[in-house]
Amino acid sequence: MMIPTLTTERLTLRAPRLSDFDAIAAFRASDRARFVGGPATKSNSWGYLAALVGHWDLRGYGRWIITETGNDATALGITGPFYPYDWPEPEIAWTLFDAAEGRGIAFEAATAARNYAYATLGWTTAASFVHPDNTRSLALAKRMGCRPDGVHQHAEYGPLHIWRHPAPQEVAA
Amino acid sequence: MTPRLVDIPALETERLRFRAPQASDFAVLEPFARSDRARYIGGGAEKDKRHAWNILTVLAGHWHLRGYGTFVAELKSTGQPIGSMGPWHPITWPERELGWTIWDASVEGTGLAHEAMLCLRRHAYQDLGWQTAVSYIDPANARSIALAKRLGCTLDSDALRNHPDNLVFRHPSPAEVLA
């Protein structure tokens, strides 16, 4: 089995590659990564990239690199079902690099990821964990129809607000 | 079910079988990574489960990014995983490494790591076409230094290091090993 590729109206979600390292390391070295454990060193970002792929192996699902269809060499962000060991439940995660902001790309990609989790993985519910100061992520969670559903205290990231996605039947309706 | 995303070569020695890292390895890796025996590779008693989980995902992911990677060795007799070992190359490291980590302290002193590394070094040279290989070792890690010497490695003081404190042991060349 290979990591599946998803396509949306404008986007192709594909497996992470070694050549994504520069884009990922640049994002994680920047202030934009402050809500997700950054800023991080290159060495740390190597581990992040390897773990991104390794998650597919260990869980049978994982996160994709977001690209624009026709330009799959340029990584715009990361999205997909994500379930690290210390998460209270699996989540739909998203990360957008700054060059891709303001065009609805994260919404389009995360919606495809949620559809995959419901339709292909058979999830009956889905959450996303968002740092309360991460206003852009918060806005996306709301745009996706999520409702607040408690707080998870994370050892490293601090309080993560749990946003509950609409149920599979609501999304499909 | 865990999908297999890359083809892992089937390698084995007299006592060991090598396979890809898998989720069930966490049960053996986790106590090791959170023990004092892991102090030379960034582990230790103060580490949490997250640290151990991260190691396992990185071990698995390396295979996909590089097309080769570090195996988990298990005892043929019992199926018990004893450690991770083999080719390793984080993008930030100066060159490719042959690494070894024995998770299960009870197999120390049995020569299993030596047996494994002879096979995996041959794999790196013969199957992957490596022309040279190093092992990066903490200067206080006497067991690993002893194994490096037993494998015929020599200290390479001129080589770039993956970490300022580590020693670089260079393995005998393919010509010497495959002769």
Short description:
The complex is a heterodimer of chains A (173) and B (179). Chain A has helices spanning 21-29, 42-59, 105-119, 135-143, 168-172, and strands at residues 6-7, 11-14, 64-68, 77-82, 91-96, 127-130, 147-154, 158-164.
Secondary structure elements and pairings:
The complex is a heterodimer of chains A (173) and B (179).
Chain A (H helix, E strand, L loop, with lengths): L5 E2 L3 E4 L6 H9 L12 H18 L4 E5 L8 E6 L8 E6 L8 H15 L7 E4 L4 H9 L3 E8 L3 E7 L3 H5 L1
Antiparallel strand pairs in A: 1-2, 2-3, 3-4, 4-5, 6-8, 7-8
Helix pairs in contact in A: 1-2
Chain B lengths: L10 E2 L3 E4 L6 H8 L15 H18 L4 E5 L5 E8 L8 E6 L9 H16 L6 E4 L4 H9 L3 E2 L11 E4 L3 H5 L1
Antiparallel strand pairs in B: 1-2, 2-3, 3-4, 4-5, 6-8, 7-8
Helix pairs in contact in B: 1-2
Architecture overview:
The complex is a heterodimer of chains A (about 170) and B (about 180). With about 170 residues, chain A is of the alpha+beta class. Chain A has helices spanning about 20-30, 40-60, 105-120, 135-145, 170; strands at about 5, 10-15, 65-70, 75-80, 90-95, 125-130, 145-155, 160-165. In chain A, the strands form two sheets. Chain A has a five-stranded antiparallel β-sheet with strand order 1-2-3-4-5, with helices on one face. In chain A, about 40% of the residues are buried. The mean pLDDT of chain A is about 95. Chain B has five helices and eight strands. In chain B, strands 1-2-3-4-5 form a five-stranded antiparallel β-sheet, covered by helices on one side. A three-stranded antiparallel β-sheet of chain B has the order 6-8-7, with helices on one face. Chain B is globular and about 40 Å long. The termini of chain B are far apart.
